[in-house]
Structure formats: C-alpha cells, structure tokens
Amino acid sequence: MTRPRPLLSILFWTVSSLVTLFPIYWMFVVSAKSRVELFGKPNFIITTFFSENYIKTLTDPTFQKYMFNSIVVATTNAALVTTLALFATYALTRYKLTGKENIFFWTITNRMAPPAAFLLPLFLLYTQVFVVGDWKLFDTRTGLILLYCVFNLPFAIWTLRGVIDSIPSELDEAAFVDGAKTWQVIWYVILPLAKPGLAVTGILTWVFAWNEYLFAATLTSVHARTITTGLAEFVTVTGTNWGQMAATAMLTLIPAIAFLALVQKHIVAGLTFGAVKG
Amino acid sequence: MSGLKRMMLGAIAAGLMAGVAPAKADFWSDAGKELTGTTIRGVSESTPPSNYVKNVLAPAFTKATGINVEFEATSWDQMYDKAIKDMEANTGIYDFVYIEQDAVYGYLARDFLVDITKFIADNPKLKAPDYDPANFTTFANYFKGKDGDLFGVPMEAFIKVYLYRKDLFEDPAVKEAFKAKYNRDLAPAKNHAEYVEIADFFTQWGKDKGIELWGSTVQANTGHPASWYEYVESVAPTFGVYNWGIDASNNYAATVEHGGKMNSPEAKKALEFWVGLLKDAPPESTASTWDEVAATFGAGRAAQGLVYGENAAWIATDESKSKVVGKVGVALPPVEPGVMEAAEAGTGYIGYYDGGAFGIPHSSKNKAAAALFLQYIAQPSVQADWAVAGSRITLQSTYDDPKVQAQDAKTDGYYTLMRDQGKLFAGAPPYPFHNQVREAVAPIFYQAITGELTPSDALDQMATTAEAELTKLGYRK
Amino acid sequence: MRSQSVGWLFLAPTILILFVFGVWPFIYVMVISFFDWNSFAADPTMRFSGVQNYRALVFDKGFLMALWNTLKFGVFAVTSQVILGYLLAQLFMKNFPLKGLFRTVHTLPLMIAPVAVGATWRLMTVPGLGPIPYYLDKWFGYEFLISRYVGQAFMTTVVMDIWHWTPLVTLTLLAALSSMPKEPFEQAQIDGANRVQTFWYVTLPMLKPAILSAVFIRLMDAMRTVDEVWMLTGGGPGSATRYIGLYIWRVVFPKTDYGYGSAMSLITLYLTIVMCWLLYAGLVARRDLKRPE
C-alpha cells in the first residue's frame, strides 16, 4: 500500500474533488446568470456570462467597505488569538499552575454557549458600558476583534495544546540550562516546532472570524459591518436576487483562498518535522 | 438596470427641481444651518423603497441641509431586533427607525416613539413649507395615536393583489378549452370556487403542453412566517375571518369555545382551500416567502396568485427580472359571498394593506435633524420617482403625477386599484403582540402545510396555543 | 526558573478577554433567566419569577424536540466528519501528484461563510432552480422536496454540514499526523505489527488529543448552528430542522422572550458542558490528563 499507484490515486482525488467542488461550481453557475435565466431546466454549462452580477458588486462602495472590514477583522483576530493562545497554552502545559486543568476546561466552555441569548448583554456592553464620550465599542472593528476571541481563543488553546504537548519538554529544559530566557525558548524552540499547528490554528481562527454572522449583524451598524452580514442582506432581503448573492459569495472566496495559500505551506513545512526529534 | 437608471435620473431631476425652486431650497439650508455637520442614523429593512431612500433621498437631503445620514438597510429580523434593543435600552443609536405597519402597535404600547405632530408644532422653525400631513393617504391613520397625532411618517404602502396572466386569460385557445371544460367564460376569479377551477385548469394545461406552468402561487414556506401571514392576512379575511380570529374585545379569545374564531368552521374552510392550492402550485411553493412568490410569478411559472404590491411594478415592467412584462393583469382577490359587501360597509376587509413608516425613537439624540429628514422624504416633489421605482404611494397627490399614471397603464392599473379600492384592504390587527403569538403558533401552522396535521386539527391546536401564549403574556386574563 | 507568576502573566490576557466578553454576559444571562421578561407583554417590565422558566422548559415539547433533533444532527454529522476527515488526512500524508492542488480543493468548503453555504445548498435543492430535485426526479423518479419532507430536510442539513466542516477535521488531524514522531512507527514495524495493530496501538493513542479537540469543536459548533440551517430551511419543514441554536434565536429575537430564552441557553450550555466533560473524561485516560506535568 505504501507503493504509490499514481493513476488510481489521481482518479480517486479527481472524483473526490469534483464532489467537493460541485456546490461551489453551482454557485458560480448561478452567479453567471441573470434573474430571468435562473428558472427552468438546470444547466451546468455556462453559455452566456451575465457579468453585471459581478460588476454591480465590485463597484458597490458598500461591498468594498464590508470586504475591507472583514479582512481587517479576521486577520487581526487570527493573529491576536494565535499569539495569545500560544502563550496561554505554553503556560498551561509547561507551568505548574494551581487549577490549570480547570482553567483549561473553563476556556472551552466559552465556546459552547448558544450565541443568541448572549446578544442582549453584549449589545448593552457595547452600547452602554464601553462608551467614552461620543465613542462606543458598538459598530467598531475593535469590538468585533475582541469579541471573536471568545469563541476563537478556546479553539486555539485546545488545538495548540496537543501540539505543544507533543514537543518534548526536554528541549526547552536544555535551552534553559544553556541560559536562554523564556521568550527565547518560545521563539527559538517552541515556535519552529509548533509551526504546523500554529498554521492550522491561524487558518481556522481566521475562517471562524471571517464567517461569523450573528454577532456582526447585531453589534455593528454602518461602519464596521462585515461581508457575511452583507451576504445575508442579499439573501433575506432582495430575496430572489440570487445571481448577485452568488457573485458576492464567489468574490468573498478570493481573499479566503489567498489567505489559505499564504498560510498553508507552513502545514507542509511540518511534514518533515518528525526527523527533528531524532 | 433600467429601473436603477431611471431611479438615478429621477434623482438628478429632483435635485435640479429643488435647485430651481428657491423658496424650498432656502428652507432646507436655513433649517439645516444650525444642524450642519450633525449625523443622524436610521435602520430599515432593505426593500426597494428603503434603498431608494438610502441611495437617492438621503444624499440629496445631506446636500440640501448639511446633515449627514447614515442609513443602515438590513434584513427584516435584524431591523426589528436592533430597533427594539436600541429603544428598549434607551441607547440612542438610531435617530429614525422603520416601523412596519404591524409593529406600530407594539411600539406605541411601549411609548417608544416621538409624537411627530407635537414635535413639529413645538418647533415651528422645523416645519417644512410643503410638508402637509393632510396629503397623506389613509394609510397614515395606522400610525396615529389616540388623539390623532402622527407617530410615523409613512414611507411605503402597498396592497396585496390578485395577479393573473393576462396573456393566457386572453388566449383564444385557452379560453375555448376552459369554456369546453367548465361551461363558463374564463375570467379572473371572483370567488374561491372559481379560483380553484382556474388553478386546476392551468395546472393541467401546463402538463398537457409540457410547459412549466401551474395554476397558482402559494406563499407556503414551511420554515418562515411568510406562510402564516399569507393565510391570516390574505386568505382568512376573504372567508370572513378577521384579525387572526382573535377577539380582542372578548378577553382575546381565539378558540370557538371561548368566543374566538381562529378554529371556526370558516377558518377551517379557508385553510383547507389554501392548503389544497398546493396541488396546483409549483413545487417550490413550500419554500417560498413573499420574495420567491414574486419571483415564481415573474418567471412565468404560475397563471395566477396573490402577490405583494411592492413587486407588481417590476413584475409588470422590468425585463431584466421578469419574463411576463406586459402580460400581467391586476384584480381584487376572490372572496366568499358576503365578504365583499362587509368590506364595502367597513366591517370587514379582503386583504392586506401593507407598508411602513419612519418614526423617531425617544432615545434619539438628534430629534430635530431626524424630524427634518422625515419631512424631506414626505415632500410631494420627491414622490413620483420613488413610486415608480417601488410601487409605493403614501401621498394622495402622487396618484396624479404623470409618471405614476404612465406606470399605472403598464401595470394594468395597479395604482388606480390601490387608490380606488384601497379602502377594502386593511392593515394588521392592532395587537402589540404580533411576533409573540405568531412565533407560538407558526410551527403548528407549518405542519398543516406539510400534511402532518389536517387543517382542522392544526387550527384547533393553534387556537389553544394562541390563548396559552396570550395568557402567558398577560393579555388574556 | 519557571516561576508561577510568569505562567500567570502568559495566561492573563486570555483570561481577561474571556472574562469581559464571555463571563460577564454569562452572568447577565444567568440573572435574566430567573425573570419573566418580554418587551411586548402586557407588563413589559422584568418580574422575578424564581425557577419558573426552568420548570416550564421541562414540559416544553418544542424545546425538547429541538434538543433531540440537535443531538441527532450532531452525532450523525460529527461521526461522519471524523471518519471522513481521518481517512482524508491519512491519504494526504502520502505523496502523489498534484497534492497541493487537491488539498486546497478539499479545504475550500471551509472558506465559505455559513450564510453562503446555506444559500448555496438552498439553490441546489429548491425545485425549479436546483439541479438536485430535477435530476433525482428525471433519473430515478424520486420526489425530492426538503421544504415538505421531514427526513429529506434532516438529511440535507447533515450532508451540508459534512460537506462544509469535514475539511476542519482533515486539517486538524493532518497537522497532528505531520507533527508525530516517527520512532514509534519504526518500532512497531520492527516489532512486526500489522497495519490494524499499528493504527490501534500507535496512531490512535497519539492522535487522541487531536481527534478529541476536533470532535469537541465540531460537536459544540453543531449545538450552536444557526446561520447555515436558517438559510437552508429556516428550521422547517415544521420544526424538523429547528435545531437548538435556531430555536433559542427565535425565542429571544422575534419573540423577545428574554427570560425564557436565557434559561433555555443556560440549560443547553449546561448539557453541552456535561456531554463534553463525559467525552473528555471517557476518551482521555487519567494519565493523559496528568501527562503535561
């Protein structure tokens, strides 16, 4: 089985990819059609391309602003969460802290709460507590970035725990013996070895932040709205404007894929990692 | 595209007109002088009329007064939720909010809104010269308090009408086949029996000819309240069951046992009729809200149906969205005997007069600027293009505008129908608990659509559940 | 060298953020859950009602139904995702042509927002528009109508979830597999273990934390699902796909029944915690728990 059988594997992956891609392809088909062309016998081949769906979206300043907000919020949040989680996980795995198992489990409970009921207290927090003069946390990107930590930090800590656990603590002990400072140990020992885990954590936290809808819809208004709320507005409101909704969804894939491509190679870097330990 | 272009051109024209008439321009810039640089923020459902305000009227207002407008157009659920949270918590995020016709009672009961009549009377400097509350259509009455003061400036108003495919109804081959089968002339249905016959006929016609055509649209989404609304607003009244079958004067009774009508024989007949239409409806009907129903009709998949008036304009005129341009007939919904007479006498109604207004929450910190904005959008001079773009009319004078009359001709007299017969339609019943009771009974209602419950059982359960919910809310003692 | 205070310092920002944005709202919700509060009730003020909300929940058929459906949904979806995700991750550990491309393709569904995923699946399944009902009818004469048939709707939400979230499991397990040391496998080979034995005694124990965290994340996210299903079915037909997240949303948003909705949230949260704790205790043996020290 270890002997590669290229034809068979290519066949398998092609079929599997087609199945995976089908819904996305269908979204693309819809995005290429005008409203009157949508109904009737489904047609998989795109004969005419109704570019207005894309042009309208791209030239819409609201869309540009939403997209920009989404990129800023997701990227900042992913960076913040991954960094904080690295330190937190390092503390939880390497230090003898009282009650750390409980803290560890407590972090994850923050992700379990069904979000709807928490919107009311958060709304009050954002509009009445975090207020300085005219400035409110409501409708700011900062507000979203901080809030998304609530569901992303637990996830990151849980993912990273396995990763950092699997790095033998003898490695950092040795570094400490050589006189390294804590930050040096994290930077030179842990960071390189945890790269695949960090990359995956980064991707997934980014995805969760990028995808979030309910909080963004309630806690922003005009300035900090993200693209998912924009998508939802297309669907629920203009109801049948499927073409433009699909075009918008296709366009939102572009930054996501770019980000994925950027980070994904670090997962690959980890593939040779086993050798390091020897 | 053409619609949007027309809208934009209209806006430019409106802007030019405002520039030509110096008296008006003076008022807006004078009134805005003290408020220049203020920013007001509003929230609304993102409908064509709202988007017209956002994209055309708000920028024009900013230009005239120097007051900035941030207009948040969002989904129906979100709009409600955020407006209510803001007013409930007295936060002051929004300076004007959209008030759907059925939400006004709840807002008034909670005293969320500023009395606009009084506010303008107290601040005569803010009174725009051509703002005239008497010019509003009767729809404005829904937004008046007990003493007749206005709490919301009407922004959109439509009636839910009976649309039919004029081209098919006038096709000689169709007419002949129909006459041969039912021994009468094919014409828009006056009563439910006729409606069902026509629906049956066209479904069969579609099958025979191998075309995608069904007899009727049904707004029967099994996971969205749109279906419940079609039944209580547009079907039950035509069977003589009004106000959801809840008797407010009789301790909010819903069951027949306690004096309500939610599960009365008429109500059961109405639900049976409506659920029965599904066999003559295109398969997407059980996934259709108001938007999809309009899309289905616009795609030419149904011969007749009840469609919200806000869609009438694009279905009948916009070729980029609709396949039935120029083929749409408009009529009054079919009714049971006696119902039309009751509606004409003012003791009943035959369908839904839908729409909404903008109001100013008490929590707003920029009431003066908001009041100016609401008057700005209520000016007669900005109405016509807005009416053409969104088939909404809130001022009587708008009906006489040549642009509206031209559009009226293209939509088979929709606007005329609304003016002349609008009185036969009514808004939602004056209950402050719309969403609460709807959410309680809707899941049972959906089961009637899927066939898990018979219409009769479903209505019995719904009536009991509605009473329980009303008791819990404290309305029913 | 390793003073406790440095450890706490590392933890501090995380705890602070979670406290302000996680615990504070939690306390608020907890307090509200003991009140009868609906903005549009005859009396719109908050009235203390003790444990009345919790008592009512036990008899709320809709709530229990939603919980049961959610559980069913979660178990079906998560089990399939873990199996599929593990298989894909293992296959990605091998070398084959165009691997990078195929891996990107298999990650794509993850990059689409749930709102858009729901809309896409809706577009595929709405009759008159979508290919699925059209071809099922044409080729097999099968009537596929998720807005009418409860079972079909349920299965569609499960399949949609599998499609959308299997990549998460694949990625998590792929990262874990990639950072695994080689020695135990070499040792197993030397000891003459067959593939099943290697999987059972070597791979699985080492993969446990990663599998566990994937299961946890997926299970608790399935319990919170709102937007995808809301877009696809709106919770219908009837209440067949009205999963608990969506149900709570309907109670606190349109129905503005804050007290009751808060109680519902807390019970759901509590059940999720218990479930996860049982899984955690069951899957991770005691020594695993203590191993970090």
Number of continuous helical runs of chain C: 13
Please trace the helix and strand order of chain C, writing H or E for each element. HEEHHHHHHHHHHHH
Give the CA-CA distance, first to last residue of chain C: 16 Å
How is the biggest beta sheet of chain C arranged?
2 strands, antiparallel
How many extended strands of chain A?
A: 2
Catalogue the unreliable spans of chain A. Answer: 269-278
Using only C-alpha atoms, the radius of gyration of chain A works out to 23 Å
Identify the overall geometry of chain A.
Answer: globular
Biggest protein-protein interface? A-C, 111 and 109 residues
User: Would you give the CATH topology of the largest domain in chain A?
Assistant: MetI-like fold
Give the % helix of chain C: over 70%
Radius of gyration of chain C equals 23 Å
CATH superfamily annotation of chain C: MetI-like
Derived structural class of chain A: mainly alpha
Which shape of chain C, going by the Cα principal axes?
globular
Query: What's the CATH class label of chain C?
Result: Mainly Alpha
In brief:
With 278 residues, chain A is mainly α. Chain A is 73% helix and 1% strand. The longest helix of chain A is centred in the first third of the chain and has 34 residues, at 61-94.
Give structural notes.
The complex is a heterotrimer of chains A (278), B (477) and C (293). Chain A has 278 residues and is mainly alpha-helical. Chain A has helices at 6-31, 52-58, 61-94, 100-112, 115-129, 141-165, 169-177, 182-193, 195-211, 214-219, 227-236, 242-269, and strands at 131-132, 135-136. The model of chain A is unreliable at 269-278 (pLDDT under 50). With 477 residues, chain B is α/β, with parallel strands linked by helices. Chain B has two domains: 2-158 and 355-424, Periplasmic binding protein-like II (D-Maltodextrin-Binding Protein, domain 2, 3-Layer(aba) Sandwich); 159-345, D-Maltodextrin-Binding Protein, domain 2 (3-Layer(aba) Sandwich). In chain B, helix 1 (2-20) runs parallel beside helix 3 (48-65) and helix 3 runs antiparallel to helix 16. In chain C, 73% of the residues lie in helices and 1% in strands. Chain C has a two-stranded antiparallel ribbon with strand order 1-2. Classes of the chains: A mainly alpha (278), B alpha/beta (477), C mainly alpha (293). The interface between A and C is large, with 111 and 109 residues.
